[in-house]
Amino acid sequence: MNPYLKTFVIVTALLTPTLAAPLLAETPKADMAMQKVNPQKISINTATAAELQMLKGIGEAKAKAIVEYREANGKFSSLEELTKVKGIGAKFLEKNAELLTL
């Protein structure tokens, strides 16, 4: 085998994983970008307080209030029923309309 060809094959074999590593490392960032573009909906009838806190404008207290309302009154029949929970208004529904589901 030609010594130059042998050297080329060895160098290529050694550099390929080094050059491929950054490409493979970028995959999780791409997945996160897809989640921002297509976020998963949150069910107001089954979500935990921690899950509800992922919504815009919801902190620990409001998340607990939603769960307590649901436990006291049963499942929500509409998204608008959320406005019966103290501290939740129409603006909240507007901001989170694409993220909410029953």
Your description of this structure?
By secondary structure, the chain is mainly α. The protein is built from 5 helices and 2 strands. This is Competence protein ComEA. One of its GO terms (cellular component) is type II protein secretion system complex. Residues 1-20 form the signal peptide.
Would you kindly provide a brief summary of this structure?
With 102 residues, the chain is mainly alpha-helical.
Question: Which SSEs are present, and which pair or pack?
Answer:
Layout: H1 3-25, H2 27-37, E1 42-43, H3 49-52, H4 60-73, H5 90-96, E2 100-101
CATH superfamily of the largest domain: AF1531-like domain
- Spatially, the strands of the biggest sheet line up as 1-2
Overall, the morphology is rod-shaped
Instruction: Determine the strand fraction and express it as a percent band.
Output: under 5%
Structural class estimated from helices and strands: mainly alpha
Distance between the termini: 69 Å
Series of H and E elements: HHEHHHE
Classify the helix fraction into a percent range. Answer: 55-70%
Please count the helical segments. 5
Mean pLDDT: 80
The CATH topology name of the largest domain reads DNA polymerase, domain 1
What characteristics describe this protein?
single chain; 102 residues; two-stranded parallel sheet; 2 strands; rod-shaped
